[in-house]
Amino acid sequence: MVTTHNLGFPRIGAKRELKFALENYWKGLSSRDELTALGAQLRQRHWENQASLDLVPVGDFSFYDQVLDMSFMLGNIPERVRNLQGNALDNYFRVARGRSAKDSACSCVHAGEMTKWFDTNYHYIVPEFAVDTEFSLDASRLLDQIAQAHQLDVKAKPVIIGPVTYLWLGKAKDDSDKLALLPRLLPAYATLLNQLAEQGIEWVQIDEPVLVTELNAEWQRAFVTAYEAFKDGKVKLLLATYFGQLQDNLTLACKLPVQGLHIDAINARAEIEQVIQQLSTDRVLSLGVINGRNIWKTDLHATLEWLEPIHGVLQDRLWIAPSCSLLHVPVDLDSEQKMDSEIRSWLAFALQKLGELQILAKALNKGRVPAQEALIANNAAIEKRRTSTRVHNPEVKAALARIDAALGKRAGAYEQRAAKQSALLNLPAYPTTTIGSFPQTTEIRQARNQFKQGELDEATYRIAIQAEIARCVREQEALGLDVFVHGEAERNDMVEYFGEQLDGYAFSQFGWVQSYGSRCVKPPILFGDISRSKAMTVAWTRYAQSLTDKPMKGMLTGPVTILNWSFVRDDQPRSVSCYQLALAIREEVLDLEDAGVRVIQIDEAALREGLPLRRSQWNDYLQWAVESFRITANGVQDETQIHTHMCYSEFNDIIASIADMDADVITIETSRSDMELLDAFDNFNYPNEIGPGVYDIHSPNIPSQEHMVHLMRKAAERIPPQRLWVNPDCGLKTRAWEEVLPALKNMVEAARTLRESM
Ligand code: GLN
Ligand code: ZN
Fold first, then answer.
1. CA–CA distance from 576 to each of 85, 549, 579, 735 (Å)?
2. Percent of the chain residues topping a pLDDT of 90
């Protein structure tokens, strides 16, 4: 008999119940008891949802983040909250967000750093280490959840992050060697495993996803040390890897003294044969056969064809599961009553994925006949999607086949272009601009929502948005900025806005996925060949330009960012979808140019985060990502100025690719780094223009003129002043007008001061 299990379940709730409960608690609108009761209720519901499984994850529920939970369990709590009075949950929130509930007597501390969980869009709180970090176990949170599970007769399999991955995820604040903490960390883990055994736990899932990254010999040795230390424990360990292939770590993973190994059989299918050969015959092999990272139905027939012979060999040693935790997919497709029914028939969210797992288990355990009905239905959906004309558009495929190197090349070199552009635009030195959005007021959001719901007719909506654009133009005139934006009032989200207008995209109503804490994203679903049937931004931009003589930037989201923030197709490489997006956005660029727009900004906010987990795959990604951008941007005349924007500043690794994009101007986030991050551009002799952000838009603080002059002077030590722009770090949509106006006023003043001293 094959065993079924799950690595983790989305904790936010099908209706984002956890999000709203957290936010109410933080605002002081509900009590801690109400919040913890909701947590218990969600756990119970999610276990019921998973009742068909042989083993159910426990401990995957979190009030904020599973890595932060682990830090608290290991007693690795930052000094700055350790001595604070008060409740443990509140201290936990202080590390997560800088404050607990409405901290009136402000026991505010600075929040822990947040970073992306491997190559997902989930963000975790980075564990903090120092040379003298000590660990002391407090497993009460997990033990309470286990007690709750046992009371409900849940077949509990606790989930914890393994010690090597835990260290790898953290940061030594004093630059000490964090791996040196391993000997101090292991006893805490050993105690934890003992406590779990005392609770009658048989299996523990211990997540070590770093095994799919490039590890040096020292980190590989750490695995041996760690798991040798747990060898005589009383619980059985299922060592879980996911998100990629093991490659150089394959033998290591197979030889560790654990009782079972979980492999992502979507990403690492090619390695399974080797794993079976190397794994000793007293070990369980868990195969992640359902994709936990996308929203597509599994081809159950193809999966069974592959899996049945493996089952024949492994028999009871075979377990099956989703490839990774289902944290990265929405909860329930059945909520999507408004979605086009054909497209919905191609999809599976968390609950549907668990249903698929059940069908696979039935077919493996009892033969395909008892599972036949479900298999036939699945096959019909898979076939329809495979051949649908809504997915496949021959014209798009033909256009893709015609792509050649010339398509992504500007006519003239940067110097020629810069001369022509400066003659035409006539900008002062240190030109000032903003990144695109202006504050989004409640009224704008309301108008947009009403229009979407059909409560507002198009003409009234247009007038409302135009009024907002006019306001932005007036304010920019008054401020004396040099290159204007229209303010993006018509956009809810920089990806969704374009997805909604492109053919090949679908939208869910409840397809929320946790990004961090209470924040969720609802990625649009790229299901088919992408094409653009009409201009998407030209009318708004043209209207904005009609109100001023200053150059108005056309504002677009680039293909790589649209791709990286969507659920994408699994039936073609990401690069192909990206090139399709590139061709569609290129049409928009050319239409803007035709409409007389002289400056066009193409945001690539998510280009860097698309980097694959393994460095060996970076070049391939960067090659097609950069080429996609070039195709989008570079069909314009020399006179048209192309801007791009990236809201981060770690460019060291990718500076050559950034230069290769050949945008005339790039604006980046730098204000917090005191411009030191411009070194990457300096060292590379980056040839084009740069706008290093001088206004930290993540903070409500209003930067002074002096501070911004100071930052720009530092920038000018690295980049020739003729090539510098003055602008904020990112868009202003999350800020209030009262903050934005004085900040920009100071920014414009700063630019004047800089010009005078040239
Ligand atoms: N143009 C977008 C804005 O200003 C850019 C946002 C981003 O980079 N995340 O909102
Ligand atoms: Zn940005």
1. 55, 40, 5, 37
2. 94
